[in-house]
């Protein structure tokens, strides 16, 4: 039997709707990301974009020796039942959008895609598939940057969170939300 804060977290997971979980997840991202809930790419309910430009100097701005651009595109999906076919569709679309939005050039460091899926139920086959999903692309042997891919799925009915290897650090978001 769970006691204290963990018991309350478990109770909240069952009571919160998928939309409430999505709203809290978007609120966590709103401080650093530009959120788009009005016209996100289909089939997603929302998108978020993070962009940063950095420069390194030696003693003065005229002596710039490094410059880099880094981007993240985050896609949010709500599903009643997540099976292998639907997961494949969401995965393919998120990766395609990330590649389309990548501007690989000299100062490009990385453009990553993150896919969050909030589902009422996740099939066991889809769980296995999530853990094995991985995409990566480098440009000019990494000199012009790369694309990475993270996926995290949350099963609302059980409170279980599943991710691929790169998405493991993001699982904590769902512990903070619920």
Detailed description of the structure:
- The chain is α/β, with parallel strands linked by helices.
- It is 31% helix and 39% strand.
- It has one domain.
- Strands 1, 2, 3, 4, 5, 6 and 7 form a 7-stranded mixed beta sheet that branches.
- The protein has helices at 4-15, 18-29, 84-100, 124-132, 172-177; strands at residues 34-36, 46-58, 60-82, 108-122, 137-138, 146-155, 160-163.
- The protein starts with a helix and ends with a helix.
- It is built from 5 helices and 7 strands.
Short synopsis of the structure:
This protein is an alpha/beta fold and 178 residues long.
Question: What topology does this entry show?
Answer:
Blueprint: H1 4-15, H2 18-29, E1 34-36, E2 46-58, E3 60-82, H3 84-100, E4 108-122, H4 124-132, E5 137-138, E6 146-155, E7 160-163, H5 172-177
Parallel strand pairs: 3-4, 4-6
Antiparallel strand pairs: 1-2, 2-3, 5-6, 6-7
